[in-house]
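ugh finaly. both done.
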Amino acid sequence: RYGLIQIPAGGSNTPFHADLDLAQTRMTITDGREVFSKAVEMMTACSRDALTAARLRPQDLDRFVPHQANARIFDAVGRNLGIADHSIVKTIAEYGNSSAATIPLSLSLAHRAQPFRPGEKVLLAAAGAGLSGGALVVGI
């Protein structure tokens, strides 16, 4: 359902401007349980598609770097895919949900903690407002 997560302002329909009501810039979630279910379903499906396109299996991955919106969501996606918990990069406890920056921030922090090695295979997956999402596999 498109209306589960919304941010009324922004984008081409309602561009940001000086007189914009700040309430229009806030994200609203209409049904948290359904958001959880749909986000897990979508991120799992996108991740499977990315793995298929890369001709890889989940056990071929070195790390999984999910969008850090909710730990329960990315833990469930990891379980659905059969990715070992130690392979999931988790930064939400320290940094929260930093919106569109969660994956780049998590990549940077993961590299600082344990530098990426040539040949590593990393799955990136995200879900966002409007319940859009995607995933890709990166070869380092």
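ok and the 2nd:
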Amino acid sequence: MNSKKEKIYKIKDIAQELGVSIQTVKNYENLGILPKAKRDEKGWRYYTQEDLIKIKALYKEEIKRI
């Protein structure tokens, strides 16, 4: 993970922020709608504050297209 003391978000946090399920976040990543998450040494997904901001913006754009 990163060495700075910035907030780290788990996939469940991203799902809650977007109001969707964890599986939906995974599906959106696989479809290329959202960027792939970073992974820690155990393979768990994690996101930074910057990632969260980008993901929220991309998600809003995707919702507009539906």
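summary for the 2nd one i guess: The mean pLDDT is 90.
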